[in-house]
Design the sequence.
């Protein structure tokens, strides 16, 4: 199945480079481009792509606000944040807005392509260089009750706790399967049950819950 993608970045050279990169990938198709957050929101409304690759800093409506509007709308589009910035505040804002992934532009091109595929498959992905730091910062910050209500933790099996711990470390379903010597289908089944039991919207929320439960410890 071909993953339909829009590219949202105010730098034409970045969009062009990504488009050329994906042209050689038969499973990826760029179906639209946007230079502002507002254009990205409109594109998602018009064509409902599978993935929006979104820069954080753009003129007018930035990528974080665009992500918030996209994830609050009816489209099933997942947002992968692509930026040169990996400061906590930017990533934190992206998480709050509902982004399904976060990578930085200086990652290897193959890693960026892999990130798109991971997010399209339903896994959330955050650049390894910032995963533990940003999530640890997230769980330390106060939030209004509607934004972060306590998650139930009772009723998890030992295996589900193992899977949640690995999710907390940023592992994908295939990596979890390898770590636990189980099939990918079984790993997906465990993750799906975690979504239901913990009331999590997406994989990023599972990572946060893993920290809140103490399964993954914040860095010192």
Sequence:
């Amino acid at each position: 199945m071909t993953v339909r993608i829009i590219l949202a970045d105010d730098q034409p050279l970045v969009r062009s480079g990504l488009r050329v990169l994906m042209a050689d990938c038969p499973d990826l198709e760029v179906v639209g481009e946007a230079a502002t957050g507002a254009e990205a929101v409109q594109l998602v409304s018009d064509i409902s792509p599978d993935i929006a690759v979104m820069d954080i800093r753009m003129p007018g409506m930035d990528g974080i606000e665009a992500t918030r509007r996209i994830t609050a709308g009816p489209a099933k589009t997942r947002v992968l944040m692509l930026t040169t910035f990996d400061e906590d505040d930017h990533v934190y804002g992206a998480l709050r807005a509902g982004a399904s992934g976060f990578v930085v532009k200086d990652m290897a091109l193959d890693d960026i392509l892999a990130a798109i595929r991971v997010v399209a498959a339903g896994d959330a992905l955050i650049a390894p260089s910032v995963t533990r730091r940003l999530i640890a910062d997230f769980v330390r910050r106060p939030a209004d009750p509607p934004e972060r209500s306590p998650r139930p933790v009772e009723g998890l099996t030992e295996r589900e706790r193992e899977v949640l711990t690995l999710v907390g470390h940023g592992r994908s379903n295939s990596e979890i399967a390898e770590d636990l010597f189980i099939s990918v289908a079984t790993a997906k089944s465990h993750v799906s049950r975690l979504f239901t039991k913990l009331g999590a919207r997406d994989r990023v929320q599972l990572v946060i819950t893993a920290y809140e439960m103490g399964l993954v410890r914040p860095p010192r």
In short: The radius of gyration is 17 Å. Residues 184-198 form the longest helix (15 residues). Confidence is low (pLDDT under 50) at residues 144-152. DSSP finds ten helices and six strands in the chain.
